[in-house]
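Practice problem: predict the structure.
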Amino acid sequence: KYLWGSLAGMCGFAAAQLMATTGQAADYDVGAVHIAQPWARATPKGASAAAGYMTITNGGTTPERLMCVSSDAAAECQIHTVSLEGGIMKMRPVEGGLEIPPGGTVALKPAGLHLMLVNLKHPLEPGKMVEVTLKFEKAGKVEVELPIAAIGAPAPGAAAGAGGSTMMDSGHGGMMQMDKH
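Answer:
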């Protein structure tokens, strides 16, 4: 009986460890805000920036505002938007934070709104996690772990080159212009 209980406990622990090492994304709740499917892309050696993605739902009755406060992997964490201007993709920080309307959902995804981890301290490696601290105007702060997918992955668990945008694969080289305003 004792041996069986110990084995069952060890199997549960092993399953939890396996989930932790395979990069399973967790959902997060803070106040009226729900964060689902957080993830980031791996970066090549020498890249100075990385992007993070997630879906944020405001279950409240008033607008909420998101600011990216910090990350363990970068000197700075910002929220960026991407637009096409004169045939050139331009990326700019969202001034004053990102508004999430009451009852609304905002998707941070490749080629659109995203978290930008600037001045990376080290490359992001597939299969690991990167931690970011998000601050919401009303709901407060929440620590979010983003599982790191392969370079160029269109979504967590997808292979690179499976139809997703790869504009951030090489630290914004060539295909995108980053404005600092």
